[in-house]
Every structure is written in structure tokens, then in C-alpha cells.
Fold this protein.
Amino acid sequence: PVQPRERLRVAIQKSGRLGEPARELLASCGLTWRESRDKLFLYGESLPVDILLVRDDDIPGLIADGVCDLGIVGRNVLVEHGLEREAQGRPADLNEWRQLGWGTCRLDIAIPESEEWTGPQQLEGLRIATSYPQTLGRWLRDNGVDAEPVVLNGSVEIAPRLGQADVVCDLVSTGGTLRANQLRPVTTILHSEAVIAGPRATLDDGRQEIADLLVRRLDGALQLKE
Ligand code: ATP
Ligand code: ZN
């Protein structure tokens, strides 16, 4: 079991698209910090809140394992984690505490530009490159389509050109990357944005109180932005 802690730990992306806005959001809650020498931790000074800097994909697992208490992560990563847990017969353990309104993107099916789109049935028997096999799998089941997910951890959009897949299921914001690869989005399977992820259960020890305080300040900061 995890040791009782009197400080809250929040996991955010170390770099990438969500890292900087996440730091700005926490700073707008009045949190100040100093960086650890290895640049993995930001030690909170003004509040008992420490920040762990990690890859976004690791955030749900860190919360699920009790290593961190909260996280700032894309809904796409959180949903994929939840479905993965369910597939393993374990209950979904995390949920969205707040939606943040930035980091918005879609998880879209995209097909070669030259092809016409007639609907989900068209995907029957095709190979679909994705980093989100669970989310894609649920959508395929919901639509009664039997296709073959090809799981790739990066460069999903070049898979059709390489002959690894026929179509892709990838994150899209402007569509520029798809266009550069002669693909076009045809249907959205998930609308995503950055969220505060946290456990369904209340936190033990003093952490729930700190979490409540942080979330109150977050709500204030989010309202000011509107
Ligand atoms: P890490 O090194 O942390 O694993 P990454 O390459 O997986 O980084 P980013 O590309 O920084 O991650 O994306 C982080 C999140 O930003 C995504 O999970 C998604 O929620 C959001 N996002 C917003 N727009 C886009 C986009 N156009 N493409 C990819 N992700 C996007
Ligand atoms: Zn990632």
C-alpha cells in the first residue's frame, strides 16, 4: 500500500502540447515551486502541492497506482486507460474532475483523399492504424464493423503511405498533418480536451482537503478565463 502523504501530487506532461498550459493553470491558482535537480519534480512552495513531470500516457496509471493524486491530461488518454481497465475486467477507477477547455482535438477516422466516404461499413476488413486501440475498438463494436486495428505509438498518419494500414484513427486539430499525408478526416469518434483526472474515491489523509482547496482555486481561475 501507498504511504500516507500530507502533500498532494499532481502529474502533468513534462513537455509537449499540455505541459506549458498545465503549469500556467497551476501558477494561476497561486502555486509557486522550485524545480528538482533532475527536473522530474516541481516542489510546491506556497501550497503543499508537488508536481510530477511525466509523459502524458503515464498519467492515468500513476493516479490509478496511487503514485499521484491528480493529473492534467487529454480526455483521449483517460478514456483509453479506462477502456483498457475494463477490458482487463477491472473497474474504471478514474474520472474527469474538471474539463479545462484547451488542448482540444478530435480522434478521427481518416481515409485517403482520393476515396469516397460512404459510412462506417466501408471500413469492414480494413487495417486501421491507431494509438488508441481501445477507443477505436469500442467505436467499431458500436457500429458493427469488423476491422483490424494496427497499433502504432507514433507517426500513425504515415502508415497508409508505408502500406502498414489502409486508413488511420488519429488525433486531429487543424487537419494539416493529415492533409500533408493525403488523408482526410471523415468521422469523429471522440471529442477531446485537457481535463483534471482524479480518482473516483475520496483521497485518504490530509490530501482530500488540499485537493478541495486546489480545485476551488482552479474553478476560480477557469471562471476568470471565460
Ligand atoms: P509525450 O512525450 O508526453 O508522450 P505526446 O507526443 O504523446 O507526448 P502531445 O503531442 O504533446 O503528446 O499531445 C498531448 C495531448 O495534446 C494529446 O494527448 C491530446 O490530448 C492533445 N492534442 C491537442 N491537439 C492535438 C493534435 N493535433 N495532435 C495530437 N494531440 C493533440
Ligand atoms: Zn504521449
Remarks:
- The chain has two domains: 8-103+194-225, 105-192.
- Residues 13, 16-18, 55-57, 74, 76-77, 103, 105, 171-173, 192 surround adenosine-5'-triphosphate (ligand 1) (CB under 6 Å).
- Helices lie at 16-28, 59-64, 75-87, 133-142, 159-162, 176-180, 207-225.
